[in-house]
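Exercise 7.
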Amino acid sequence: MTEQPTQRHPTEINLHAKSRLLTIAFDDGASFELPCEYLRVFSRAAEVRTLNRPVTGKETVNILEIEPQGQYAVRILFDDGHDTGIYSWDTLYRLGQDKERNWADYLTKLEQIGYRRAEPEPGEKRIRLLYFAWLARKLRKESEDLTIPAEVGDVASLMRWLGSRKRGAAVLFEDGRVRVTVNKQFSEPFTKLHDGDEVGIVPTSPTPPATPDLI
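Solution. The predicted structure, written as tokens, is:
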């Protein structure tokens, strides 16, 4: 394969399969969060670019594998069988820069053909929480099963919600004070939560914050 010149170069690229999200950072400091569905419907493969209508039905598509293509691109293999899309670094950069505009245009095209995306229905979720070290002592429990409200959809919103349940608890769940695992895998703030997940909350320091008795 012939190497192609590229103006942008990534410094980090990570697939967050549970959240169906690809994160990529570039050497100019820019960083982007690119949903798998977005990458799939904007594939540069010839069979996609030549379609006379937008790609549909990819709301839950995920990435199976990312293969380097020389020093300038990656080939992304999706779990719906699509495996011919080559994404150069410059293409991924432009997709990140133009994500909001591209997505708005895509939704407009879907509306024009009468297609309604199958957005996951928000709703309550039942999860199991595991507390470790001083957090378990502060909360006087090592685990609990909880039903979390519909608006708590990711790790960041879960930490805020847990901090609001009892007076004085917010400091226990502050960013940087704990690490969170979801189904035994370390997570990011944007990691999505689903019904039946097991969430572990692990303090990052052996010293607990000073807090009043939790009520």
